[in-house]
What does this fold into?
Amino acid sequence: MHQDDVSLAVRNDHYILQLAQSLFNKHGHDPSKHEYIRQKIRELGRLIVTLHNTTNIHNLEEAIQPRNFITLTNAVKDVAGFDGENNSYKSPSLALKIGHSLRKVSDLIQCRALMTDDQEGIRSVEMFQKLYEAKWSEFVSHSALSNLSEAKYNKASSLPLTRDIQKLHQFLDQEAESALKVLKGTSCATNYAKLSRLTLCQVILFNRRRAGEVSKMTVKNYQDRKTSKLSDVNFGLSEMEKKLSEHFARVELRGKRDRKVAVLLTPKMTTALSLLVSKRQECGVEDSNTYLFGIPRCQSHYRGQDCLRSYADLCGAENPAYLRSTNLRKHVATISQVMNLKDNELDQLADFLGHDIRVHREFYRLPESTIQVAKISKLLLAMEKGSLSNIQGKSLDQIDDEVDMSNASKEGVEADIFTTWQTEGEGGNIGAGSSVASSGNTAQRGRKTAYVKQPWSSLETKAVMKHFGQHIKKGKLATLTECEACKEAENPILEKRTLQNIRDFVRNRGISHKRLLLSVDR
It folds into this structure.
């Protein structure tokens, strides 16, 4: 720890040291958790310094007395920067963290009292814990949680732009190829560090893996990697899937909450990592450093988040701050919803990302604003029209036909939906597009009989484009009223086409036009 008033207070407090010992017993075997332990201990050290400066309380055992409960809560508020006038904290999470640590310290005091049969101490700590359960939320944590919740209101989406991700991919590929050649020619710590950091970023970006999980990959993890072999399972795969399974190597790591998570490695990544392993000794990486991305002459590893941040700034991205592992994970999970994956496919994706399906749906879902604009608004418009009987038993995707935008608000609503799709979709956040993409499956879900798709003739296509060319360019959907007018005007060319056929044609052409614009933009 830094040698200051906080570290001095920690050294002189018996129960802060006891908490440090308890944390070290749990996490001390993992060097990456040492910083976490220091952080927890310094938080309590700052509390003790505040108590020294404002009260006559000199240690935690004294602070955790029922008679000092109000004084203790006031000290926690001071440390977290509480503003009584605005009922807000400068650092609300700090108040919550200190509260959790104090509860653990009270448990340590209780254990000691039980082991020494100190009845007075047992009674005192039990009273403190009762006060904590009854009043801590009222005095401290409720305001802190409210502040954290309010900070999320109207928060701008931080999902990365698709073209920014591509720029980062291309930048890392070019730099890694160059660094590989340089390290082959000259073995030194500088060249080793560059290739190690680049490869670390490539693995994180390609797998959308948590940066910390990849950073802590060990040499043994890599050496135990698995490649696909011929088995009974392979016969159930398509030819493309068989080739892909042979193309990638798979490494299993310990993920969050000790879950087993997988990392896929391309042949280029495998080549780079194998070179790094072979050059470890020449480049100064000690044998005792078990990390695959170990730092020369050190026992720790390169931090993936730091590497990702630095290369994001260098790759020429428009919004480099959005190119972080958490945002990248949300990006792929959000796109998976637009793809309308089956339940078992969603389970596989969530398992690969290292979380269960409930977390996937709750925290990696489409942005709420997009869903409300593109989907819920359809329900509200149908209710405004008074067509509740017509939408009974239908899903949100199936009530398009009941939304008549022939009123004055039609142009505004359609523009809002398309604008949301356009602006957020280009940011990798393709939420509004989901209503458009998924509505294409609506007819198939509703039908019970087989349907043979009839190709559009050139005359039919020309007839519809004459009426809806601007709709397609602007991404607007055709109403049934407009489709009916088109069919009547182009009779008998469109005689065999239903109104829904014409409507689907306009929608699908609009989607194709949008994709074309995006591909050119990339």
User: Anything to note?
Assistant: Residues 250 and 264 are 5 Å apart (CA to CA). The chain has 25 helices and five strands. Residues 119-150 form the longest helix (32 residues). The domain at 162-338 is CATH 1.10.443 (hpI Integrase; Chain A).
